[in-house]
Amino acid sequence: MEKVKAVLDKGDVVHLEGSETDLTMSIRGRNAVVGDATHNVPGGETYTAPLEDSAEGKIYFDFPGIIYGREVRDIRLRFEKGEVIDYSATKNENLLKAMLETDGGSRRIGEFGVGTNYGITRFTRNILFDEKIGGTIHLAVGRAYKECGGQNESAIHWDMIKTMKPGRIIVDSKLMQKDGVFFVRQTVKLLIFSCN
Predict the structure, then answer these.
(1) Partner of 154 for a Cys bridge, out of 32, 82, 116, 143, CB 3.0 to 4.6 A?
(2) Rounded distance between C-alpha atoms, residue 74 and residue 54, angstroms
(3) Cut 0.70: pTM above it
(4) Distance from the Cα of residue 86 to its chain's centroid
(5) How far apart are CA 104 and CA 86, in angstroms?
(6) What is the DSSP pairing of strand 157-163 with strand 167-171?
(7) Is the pLDDT of residue 152 over 60?
(8) How far apart are CA 26 and CA 144, in angstroms?
(9) 27 and 33 in contact (C-beta within 8 Å)?
C-alpha cells in the first residue's frame, strides 16, 4: 500500500484500461492515503481524490454497485470534463439516475482507490471488504475526502468497484498494475509484487 501511495503521490495522469474501460483523470497535487485498518477494517486499499474536472472517457463496473441495500448492475459511466454525461445499468438504472442527480457534485469523482488485499477473494456486498479486493479499483461519485486534498462536495459518496483482471493501471505513461499484478518502480530497479 505504501508503494502504491508513493506512485500516486508523485503522479499526474492516471489511465485505466480494461473491459469497456478507457478512462483518464489527474491526481496532480493530491495526497494518497493508505487504508491500513487504523480506522477502516479490514485494511487493504490506497486511495486519493482526482481533480474535479479531469475525468475523461468511459468505465464499466462489473461488480454490482450497492446503495441503500439495493443492487445496481452493469454500471457504465461516460465522463467529460470531470462530469458524468452518460450512464446506464442493466438493473435499477432509475436508482443510478437518482443518485447521479442528487446534487451538483454527485456526477463527479470524489475518490479513486486501488484494492490491495488479496486475502479477500469474493464479493460480499459489504463495501468495507469489497473495495479492498486485490486486483480491483473503485471510484466513488460524490463527496471527496479532504485528507486527499479533494474539493468535490456532495451529499453522497458511492463506491463502485471494477476488477482489473484483465486491465491496466497506468500512471504518467508508466505501468503500475497489469491484470492484478503491481509493477512499482523505485530508483533504478523494478519491483514486482503480487500476493496471489
Answers:
(1) 143
(2) 23
(3) yes
(4) 18
(5) 15
(6) unpaired
(7) yes
(8) 14
(9) no
Asked if 112 contacts 25 with a C-beta cutoff of 8 angstroms, the reply is: yes
Beta carbons within 8 Å of 175's beta carbon, 6+ residues apart: 168, 169, 183
Could you give the C-alpha distances from 195 to 35, 121, 177, 182, in angstroms and in order?
17, 12, 13, 10
Report the 10 Å Cβ neighbour count for 95: 16
Name the band, by pLDDT with cuts 50, 70 and 90, for residue 195.
Answer: very low
Amino acid sitting at position 178: K
Count of residues in the chain: 196
Q: Is the pLDDT of residue 88 over 80?
A: yes
- Please determine, for residue 44, whether its predicted confidence score (pLDDT) is greater than 80: yes
Q: How confident is the model at residue 39 (pLDDT cuts 50, 70, 90)?
A: low
Residue 196 identity? N
Q: What one-character DSSP code corresponds to residue 14?
A: E
Place of cell 459518496: 157
Going by pLDDT thresholds of 50, 70 and 90, the confidence category of residue 37 is low
What is the SS3 string spanning 109-175?
EEEEEEECECCCCCCCCCHHHHCCECCEEEEEEECCCHHHCCCCCCCCEEEEEEECCCEEEEECCEE
Cell of 105: 457534485
Contacts of 151 (CB under 8 A, 6+ apart): 49, 52, 144
